[in-house]
Amino acid sequence: MGGLLKVDVSPLLGEAGATLEVDTEVPLEAMTVGDSHVKFEEPPRLRVILANAGEVIVASGTVQAAARLDCTRCLEPFDLDLVGTVDAVISPTEDPELIDEDQEWYPLEGDAVDLFAAADAALRVEVPFAPVHDEACLGICPICGCDRNRDTCACRQEPDTASENPFAVLKDLVPPTED
Ligand SMILES: [Zn+2]
Ligand SMILES: [Zn+2]
Asked: Which domain holds residue 151?
């Protein structure tokens, strides 16, 4: 959850137009997004340019990570490169004159800002809702539990219409048409 990624922005303060390049590791080992459990064997990398835009500091860049996820069909772990976009404003106060309502912003605390939440949020939106190791993954046989990518089983492959067809229930509601 709440990691810490303090960045000293003192070189920027008091000089409109000044920029600062930040290239740092994000202390993040894992995250859960919906049903996806994501592991990072190497810390994700945050690369942003901070710019003094007068009243606020603007942060823009990317966060990159080699993520390990579990395929939701066959349950095998697989690797996926994630690249998130950071586009945030850093301000001493949440002043509506300076920050749009839908703009992501982070507080300036003295001469520093904590960019952990910005990096975490940028990666989080890149995690697929139902990750699959391959779009063609055949998944696990619901009858015998074998991995159908590797094994061919003799189970009957009749579709289970009652549970899989979302319209099956309508069959009972709509009177059959007479020919
Ligand atoms: Zn799979
Ligand atoms: Zn089977």
From this structure: 140-179
